[in-house]
Write a structure and sequence with these properties.
The protein contains 9 helices and 8 strands. It is an alpha/beta fold. The strands form 2 sheets. Strands 3-2-1-6-7-8 form a 6-stranded parallel sheet, with helices on both faces. The structure holds ligand PTJ.
Length: 228
């Protein structure tokens, strides 16, 4: 935050996430692993997959996002709720220092608009989220997740809160901490890359996001029961 990558509101969002991380035992649970396989399959089958990055994701898992981008050959786009061109540039150059190639969505290049969003998050890059069919949206707010789905895009959320609007609106929601979920997604992508398209399709068609979110909640309850 002191470097300007994360906004003060991001610390509150971080605290919300941490609270959920405690009640799932700070480890990746089976429902998240199932969602990760479906997410990797979706990303590998996409024509234009894009990884959307905000301040919190860059600060928590910048290098991990760069690794995922290389694993699935997907571009990274900076997309900020509290948008300023200074922050966009700061985050893009931070990611480049970590090994990212071109980072989309900076300044005038974010010239497309997602309909139905009031925040400056509606501005997207026509080379990235603008033409994407699958978008990874870690630590996202509900409005944009809903708007991207309305625009016909498939979305993969990473959100520790299984009750959030983002988790419910996404096509696939990974209920886990970004610091564990993104490396797991990279590993799953390398594993699934070797599979046939029909197997990838099965990972996606067998996955029901609503049922998986219910499993996440049940796994949290089970964990808490151990303490009760
Ligand atoms: O960098 P900007 O300007 O784009 O701003 C980003 C923030 C995070 C401030 C903005 O997107 C925001 O306020 O988000 P919300 O609405 O608080 O949503 C964040 C969601 O991510 C919440 O449901 C949190 O539980 C969840 N979350 C927080 N930390 C983590 C997390 N999920 C996974 N891993 C985390 N480490």
């Amino acid at each position: 935050m002191s470097e300007g990558i994360v906004v003060p509101q991001g610390l509150i969002a971080h605290g919300r996430g941490e609270a959920f991380d405690y009640i799932l035992g700070e480890e990746t649970l089976p429902a998240a692993t199932a969602a990760t396989s479906a997410a990797a399959a979706l990303l590998l089958m996409a024509e234009h997959p894009v990884l959307s990055v905000n301040g919190n994701t860059a600060a928590l898992a910048g290098k991990e996002i760069v690794n995922l981008s290389a694993a699935i050959s997907a571009p990274i786009e900076v997309n900020l709720f509290h948008r300023t061109s200074k922050r966009e540039r700061l985050i893009a150059s931070y990611l480049k220092r970590l090994g990212a190639g071109d980072v989309l969505g900076v300044g005038k290049s974010a010239s497309s608009t997602i309909r139905g969003i009031a925040s400056s998050r509606r501005q997207t890059d026509p080379r990235g989220i603008g033409k994407a069919d699958v978008v990874l949206i870690p630590l996202e707010d509900g409005d944009r997740a809903e708007a991207l789905s309305r625009d016909g895009k498939k979305t993969i959320a990473i959100d520790l809160n299984p009750l959030s609007r983002t988790s419910r609106a996404a096509s696939v929601s990974i209920v886990d901490n970004v610091i564990r979920a993104i490396p797991a997604l990279t590993q799953a992508s390398y594993r699934l890359k070797k599979m046939r398209r029909t197997s990838l399709e099965r990972f996606v068609s067998d996955f029901d996001n609503q049922r998986n979110l219910e499993s996440s909640v049940r796994e949290m309850i089970e964990y808490l029961r151990g303490w009760a």
